[in-house]
Amino acid sequence: MRAGRRTGAWAGVLRIRRPGRLAAEAGALLVAVVVAFPLYWMVLSAFKPAGEVQSAHPRPWTLSPSLDSFRRVFTQEDFGRYFLNSLLVAGSVVVLSALIAFLAATAVARFRFRFRTTLLIMFLVAQMVPVEALTIPLFFLMRDLGQLNTLGSLILPHLAFSLPFAIWMLRGFVKGVPVALEEAAALDGASRTRFLWQILFPLVFPGLVATSVFSFISAWNDFLFAKSFIISDTSQSTLPMALLVFFKPDENDWGGIMAGSTVMTLPVLVLFVLVQRRLVLGVGGAVK
User: Fold this and answer.
1) Is 62 left (phi over 0), alpha (psi -120 to 50) or beta?
2) pLDDT value of residue 21
């Protein structure tokens, strides 16, 4: 009798929750469609012939897919160099920001020192300053450092802007590691350096992956700094600058623009596929 009552109660709960769950899933699906539609239209336009791309009555499909837009992109002069420059800038920012942020987050979370709280507040303030407001001061700074027309003028600003977010996020991961674990390692004869790299680093690695993804996207998609700091030496340009070739005074090559944008998006998608599990763990751990 009691089992029958419990079964009926659970059935009532499921009936009550089911419409709400369906509504949530429908809302999530709608948001996913809205977010994915620009990406779909970009890829579709990249495969459309020139006549369909510039048609006054666009259709969400194509009957005659073409690779002409991709041919124009890959036959562009120095396209490979631009791709390697973007990869070098983004890779350098990811590696340096991960290393510095890990050490800084460990120091902020484990050690007590003067102005510690002030330093943490400064990290938040640095995130609030718009990048556009600092472009001109950064231009003069790079000029005085002799870094204009070099990849260093792109690496240094992105490194500076990615560090506050990375340090603040990794600080939560480091604090989540019990101090007793460090004490146990010390009792076993492990030095602080060994604990740092052999024990603490693997534990906070999901957080490093999450911050590295954001740093990579910011550096990979950068156009403002590349346009402002790379003035005369086009051999130091990055991939977003290569898209300017398809913006012509008389008529823009929208097929080439969409094909180039698709090529730019592929490395980011590949990175997400490779680190998606650790990325979810990293973001979830930061929230926890």
Assistant:
1) beta
2) 81
**Residue 5 has what pLDDT?**
52
Q: In angstroms, what is the C-alpha Rg of the chain?
A: 25
Cβ neighbors of 11 (< 8 A, separation 6 or more) are none
Digit-coded pLDDT (tens) for 214-242: 889 889 988 889 888 987 777 888 888 88
Find out whether 141 and 209 touch, Cβ atoms under 8 Å.
no
Residue of 242, 237, 244 lying closest to 154 (CA atoms)? 237
Please give the mean pLDDT across all residues of the chain: 82
CB burial of 99-130 (b: ≥16 within 10 Å; e: otherwise) equals eebbebbbebbbeeeeeeeeeeeebeeeeeee
DSSP 8-state symbol, 172:
H
Q: In sequence order, what are the residues at sequence separation of 6 or more whose Cβ sits closer than 8 angstroms to the Cβ of residue 166?
A: 97, 98, 101, 105, 211, 214, 215
| The model scores a pTM over 0.90 | no
Query: What is the C-alpha to C-alpha distance for residues 20 and 130, in angstroms, rounded to an integer?
Result: 39
For residue 55, count other CB atoms closer than 10 A to its CB: 11
* Encoded tokens for 162: 């990615």
